[in-house]
Amino acid sequence: MANPIPNLFRVPELKEKILFTLLILLIYRFGAHITVPGVDVGILRVQFGALSGGILGIYDMFVGGGLSRATILALGIMPYISASIMFQLLAAVFPTVEKLQKEGEDGRQKLTQWTRYTTVVLSVVQGFSYAVFLNSTGAVRVPGFVFNLTTTITLTVGAIFVMWLGEQITERGIGNGMSLLIFFGIIEGFPAAVARTWESFTAGQITIFALVGLVVVLVGITAAVVLMTMGARKIPVQIPRKVVGRGRIREGQKSFVPLRVNSAGVMPIIFAQSFIVVPGTIAQLAGQAGGFWDTIAQIFQPGPVYYVTYGLLIVFFTYFYTAIIFNPVDLAENLKKQGAFIPGVKPGARTAEYIDRVLTRVTLPGSVYLALVALVPFWIFSLFNIQTFFFGGTGLLIVVGVGLDTVQQAQQHLLLRHYDGFMKKGRVKMRGRSRYV
């Protein structure tokens, strides 16, 4: 099969979207290297290194190292992501929010406005908290109220600007703008990590067997993540034959409902990390060596207790988040309204019970898979004794998920213009009656 990459630039519309997306990402990465006025980055990096394993380190990974460099875009897209997750969770508690989600375009626009306002509030809170943190590191040349005020305003405006950049990519670019900003923030440190690993190898600190073993394992884990990300349990659905219009007959159709093995995505790992790093981060900030907080900090360092607690939290949050984002009752009602049914299962409540039972069984291997993806990197780098390169489970899932979504969107543009796509069977066969519900 011919290389499909050149086809991306043969479709004028797709070419413009790709170039526009690259321009926005270039602007984002440029702004992510402009330091907030009044901060000594060298001192900050030294102080920040002691907290890199806590919640600040996780946040710093999502924003491409913006926190450790104190840049004007240090908050990144995370305030908007936090606001979006907040309203997603509130929909399961407050009927008003759930009703807006089901009202179509008008409801979505109102929710988008609420999300933007909440993003501004969160940006102010996080910006002020980060300014106070900078004062405590000794990296601020002239600490005080003026620095806190100017830094809070700068970071808030930066977060709003990043939110606008993400929306521009979604509307005028290749799409999936917010996720692409996180994607490029994560892979920003990849070349430097590879360079550090190579330097350690040439200096004799890493053996050739350890390096080859690391590459083989990382490639295998990445392939497994791709497989599990695309894996789904297909529930067959039958749409009966019916008469529509003036005597026209719509033939019966066979379809299916795909239940993804990993419906919750990366959110369970993020929730679990947020819970498990808080005690250790508080202990590090408290700085009471030899006391209670020192004991807490030791317990929540990578070890047996950490691994077991982390894994159980991921399994719990996988079920929790799946229950929030996937409602079997709504799906059963939608099938009933379309006249569709699952063969051998009565429509309505029985269908909802069946879907819920299948979803519960499918989620179990998905939750175990997420726990392994999150924990395996710790074991790998401990086994190979390589500390210059970290391949975290959270970052890997985000990079793979966003990468696959972007490829699928480009694939759709190519297929609409009758170009070969990225898959081996690049053209869509219009024959047959199978489709997604």
Highlighted features:
437 residues, 5% strand, Preprotein translocase SecY subunit, 5 strands, disordered C terminus, mainly alpha
Briefly say what this structure is.
The protein has 437 residues and is mainly α. It is built from 17 helices and five strands.
Describe the structure.
With 437 residues, the chain is mainly alpha-helical. It folds into two domains: 12-188, Orthogonal Bundle (Preprotein translocase SecY subunit); 207-391, SecY subunit domain (Preprotein translocase SecY subunit, Orthogonal Bundle), CATH 1.10.3370.10. Helices cover 66% and strands 5% of the residues. It is built from 17 helices and five strands. The chain has helices spanning 12-31, 41-49, 55-62, 66-69, 78-90, 95-101, 105-137, 145-172, 177-187, 190-202, 208-230, 267-286, 292-299, 304-325, 328-337, 349-384, 393-416; strands spanning 232-239, 242-244, 248-250, 253-260, 435-436. The protein has a three-stranded mixed β-sheet. A two-stranded antiparallel ribbon has the order 2-3. A hairpin with a 3-residue loop joins strand 2 and strand 3 (248-250). Helix 11 runs antiparallel to helix 16 (349-384), helix 12 (267-286) packs across helix 14 (304-325) and helix 14 runs antiparallel to helix 16 (349-384). The model is unreliable at 425-437 (pLDDT under 50).
